[in-house]
């Protein structure tokens, strides 16, 4: 697909499996996805399984064009942080991308904007690409404060990193009220936020990929991907079904 304003940005589809799967189901899903994504493509595809399945997933993806990612990481590089996983450990396992600041981590694990900023830095220091998630709550949206919330989440990271490092990062807009609810942002709602996020990037505005996430399915992907400031999708539920996932990847291709 050719978009006048983003002719140089490759579309990206990221599957965030969240805390789903087991060895048997994962193998079944990955064999089907790899078989359906052979050859050359104009879109990049990334799969982010739970930590324990990274090695198994990586081995089933090896030789394919599909890249491996992780769902979060520690802000620390090593040490006495029981249960944490560092970005360099993820690099060891051939991860290329790490999702950070997902709203489920912010809301359920209490991750703050500042922690997310430190995770962003840790991911880049390990040579990996952060996928920084931002998004407003339903309350923010109802009060018309979506851009204010997203601006604050972005500024918290910019304050620690500057903007230049976004040359090697991906942004994702995931409205909290659209995640796992079946309610997708309308094309107008999504495009408004993506345009705003792009404008915050200053000189890099035209270069950084900005994904949309929140109840993206095969039936609505094409319409979202056609928008000038949307460069792909961050998928939850749809990444657990090979046919659905591949249909979305093809829509981005
Ligand atoms: P759903 O696609 O299930 O709404 O989840 C989106 C998401 O949170 C991806 O990170």
From TrEMBL:
<keyword id="KW-0312">Gluconeogenesis</keyword>
<comment type="function">
    <text>Involved in the gluconeogenesis. Catalyzes stereospecifically the conversion of dihydroxyacetone phosphate (DHAP) to D-glyceraldehyde-3-phosphate (G3P).</text>
</comment>
<dbReference type="InterPro" id="IPR035990">
    <property type="entry name" value="TIM_sf"/>
</dbReference>
<feature type="binding site">
    <location>
        <position position="180"/>
    </location>
    <ligand>
        <name>substrate</name>
    </ligand>
</feature>
<feature type="binding site">
    <location>
        <begin position="236"/>
        <end position="237"/>
    </location>
    <ligand>
        <name>substrate</name>
    </ligand>
</feature>
<dbReference type="InterPro" id="IPR000652">
    <property type="entry name" value="Triosephosphate_isomerase"/>
</dbReference>
<keyword id="KW-0324">Glycolysis</keyword>
<dbReference type="InterPro" id="IPR022896">
    <property type="entry name" value="TrioseP_Isoase_bac/euk"/>
</dbReference>
<dbReference type="InterPro" id="IPR020861">
    <property type="entry name" value="Triosephosphate_isomerase_AS"/>
</dbReference>
<dbReference type="GO" id="GO:0004807">
    <property type="term" value="F:triose-phosphate isomerase activity"/>
</dbReference>
<protein>
    <recommendedName>
        <fullName>Triosephosphate isomerase</fullName>
        <ecNumber>5.3.1.1</ecNumber>
    </recommendedName>
</protein>
<feature type="active site" description="Proton acceptor">
    <location>
        <position position="174"/>
    </location>
</feature>
<comment type="similarity">
    <text>Belongs to the triosephosphate isomerase family.</text>
</comment>
<keyword id="KW-0413">Isomerase</keyword>
<feature type="binding site">
    <location>
        <position position="215"/>
    </location>
    <ligand>
        <name>substrate</name>
    </ligand>
</feature>
<dbReference type="Pfam" id="PF00121">
    <property type="entry name" value="TIM"/>
</dbReference>
<comment type="subunit">
    <text>Homodimer.</text>
</comment>
<feature type="active site" description="Electrophile">
    <location>
        <position position="102"/>
    </location>
</feature>
<comment type="pathway">
    <text>Carbohydrate degradation; glycolysis; D-glyceraldehyde 3-phosphate from glycerone phosphate: step 1/1.</text>
</comment>
<feature type="binding site">
    <location>
        <begin position="16"/>
        <end position="18"/>
    </location>
    <ligand>
        <name>substrate</name>
    </ligand>
</feature>
<keyword id="KW-0963">Cytoplasm</keyword>
<comment type="pathway">
    <text>Carbohydrate biosynthesis; gluconeogenesis.</text>
</comment>
<dbReference type="InterPro" id="IPR013785">
    <property type="entry name" value="Aldolase_TIM"/>
</dbReference>
């Amino acid at each position: 697909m050719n978009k006048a304003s983003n002719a140089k940005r490759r579309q990206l589809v990221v599957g965030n499996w969240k805390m789903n799967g087991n060895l048997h189901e994962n193998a079944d899903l990955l064999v089907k996805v790899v078989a359906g994504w052979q050859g050359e493509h104009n879109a990049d595809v990334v799969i982010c399984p739970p930590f324990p399945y990274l090695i198994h997933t990586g081995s089933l993806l090896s030789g394919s064009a599909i890249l491996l990612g992780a769902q979060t990481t520690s802000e620390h590089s090593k040490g006495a942080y029981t249960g944490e996983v560092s970005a360099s450990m993820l690099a060891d396992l051939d991860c290329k991308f790490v999702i950070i600041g997902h709203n489920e981590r912010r809301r359920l694990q209490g991750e703050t904007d500042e922690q997310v900023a430190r995770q962003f830095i840790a991911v880049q220091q390990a040579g990996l690409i952060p996928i920084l998630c931002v998004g407003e709550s339903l309350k923010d949206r109802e009060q018309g404060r979506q851009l204010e919330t997203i601006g604050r989440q972005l500024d918290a990271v910019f304050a620690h990193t500057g903007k230049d490092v976004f040359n090697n990062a991906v942004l994702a807009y995931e409205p909290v009220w659209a995640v796992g609810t079946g309610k997708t942002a309308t094309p107008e709602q999504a495009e408004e936020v993506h345009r705003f996020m792009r404008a915050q990037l200053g000189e890099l505005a035209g270069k950084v990929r900005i994904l949309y996430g929140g109840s993206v399915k095969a039936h609505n992907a094409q319409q979202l991907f056609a928008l000038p400031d949307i460069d792909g999708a961050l998928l939850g539920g749809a990444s657990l079904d090979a046919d659905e996932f591949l249909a979305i990847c093809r829509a981005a291709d």
